[in-house]
Write a sequence for this structure.
């Protein structure tokens, strides 16, 4: 390791913890040229910040993100704050010439995201959005199989992203833990939070979506707003389903909800092509299902590939075959790709512009649901 990379991370919530762990572990498992230096952690809650910094080994703290961005000893700004803050932080960080790693989704909506992309393009510095599921070994293997032409021309894409944590009407909205339920902070509900992952994966696998026809529903109309301590209208989409036409002619179906009793974080895809299919379910994340139509009929069938051999994507960096990896490691894999890109000068996908394409797709989904009509997706 020859170069030090001084990291400044904003936000001590769930994702701040996940990313802190990635900075802590990266150099232990991946041989990259840059050494991660956990230089500064920032959060407006001073008490929480102190405990977090001590626990994760951050060298210094700031309660004002503008001060952290202004510091000369910060090379990379990592944004782990709620969606309504991404715009201002990213633009300020880009103007200060920082490398940017931003937690998904890009922004509240595409209009909010466009100036962010303009700012990073003007700065010319590397940037990335943490769509971590691309770095699940089984998903990366699916990408390889598709790119090698093994399933041939793609006809169908099928995605589900299901959770159940908002089923109870007693779950409040807003505040540190539940801002994802408040559209003023999150931008949207399952569309921006969960379907953004599915859209990112789909376009990575088979290319851009051209148009969508969607429906959304808000099942529980009022919830207590934290801080206000009274019931207020719920303005997010609790569930969303849409049909999609891809630019390459494939058809897609996408479904997401936080009301699928028993589903904690089920993220699936299935891709059907002329020569075969691949299928994945995050609930069994080390497995990739693969069907090869060219197998002899007598033995033809779905095979389950356990993607924990050292030959599988990312796995040579982890344990011996059969000893699996999970959520924390997918983020370390993501960081590894980004830092390798800093070493070699290659762009890491998705960058902010790629994430803007996903944001345009999310906007089209929500507009389509509102207007009850097909919507064409704009391009960045
Ligand atoms: C909450 O719904 C959440 O943490 C999302 O924000 C993440 O992106 C997803 O991966 C898991 O669920």
């Amino acid at each position: 390791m020859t170069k030090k990379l001084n990291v400044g991370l904003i936000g001590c919530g769930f994702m701040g913890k996940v990313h802190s762990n990635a900075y802590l572990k990266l150099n232990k498992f991946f041989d990259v040229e840059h050494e991660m230096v956990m230089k500064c952690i920032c959060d407006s809650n001073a008490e929480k910040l102190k405990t977090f910094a001590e626990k994760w080994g951050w060298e210094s703290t700031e309660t004002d993100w503008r001060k952290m961005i202004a510091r000369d000893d910060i090379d990379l700004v990592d944004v782990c704050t709620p969606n309504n803050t991404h715009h201002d932080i990213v633009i300020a960080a880009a103007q200060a010439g920082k490398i940017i790693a931003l937690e998904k989704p890009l922004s509240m909506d595409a209009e909010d995201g466009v100036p962010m992309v303009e700012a990073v393009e003007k700065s010319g510095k590397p940037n990335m959005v943490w769509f971590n599921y691309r770095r699940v070994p089984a998903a990366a293997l699916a990408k390889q199989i598709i790119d090698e032409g093994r399933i041939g021309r793609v006809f169908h894409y099928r995605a589900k992203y299901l959770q159940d944590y908002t089923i109870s009407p007693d779950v409040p909205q807003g505040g540190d833990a539940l801002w994802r339920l408040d559209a003023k902070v999150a931008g949207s509900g399952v569309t921006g939070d969960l379907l953004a992952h599915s859209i990112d994966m789909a376009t990575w696998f088979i290319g851009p979506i051209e148009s969508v026809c969607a429906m959304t529903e808000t099942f529980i109309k009022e919830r207590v707003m934290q801080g206000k301590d009274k019931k207020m209208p719920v303005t997010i989409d609790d569930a969303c389903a849409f049909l999609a036409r891809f630019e390459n002619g494939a058809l897609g179906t996408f479904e997401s909800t936080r009301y699928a009793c028993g589903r904690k974080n089920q993220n699936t895809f299935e891709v059907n092509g002329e020569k075969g299919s691949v299928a994945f379910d995050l609930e069994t994340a080390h497995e990739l299902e693969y069907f090869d139509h060219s197998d002899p009929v007598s033995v033809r069938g779905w095979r389950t590939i356990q993607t924990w051999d050292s030959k599988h994507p990312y796995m040579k960096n982890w344990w011996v075959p059969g000893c699996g990896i999970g959520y924390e490691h997918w983020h370390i894999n993501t960081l590894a790709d980004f830092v390798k890109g800093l070493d070699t000068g290659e762009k890491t996908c998705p960058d902010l512009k790629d994430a803007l394409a996903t944001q345009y797709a999310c906007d089209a989904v929500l507009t389509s649901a509102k207007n009850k009509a097909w919507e064409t997706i704009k391009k960045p």
User: Anything to note?
Assistant: The chain has eleven helices and 17 strands. The mean pLDDT is 97. Residues 364 and 377 are 6 Å apart (CA to CA). The pocket of alpha-L-sorbopyranose is lined by residues 163, 180, 193, 265 (CB under 6 Å).
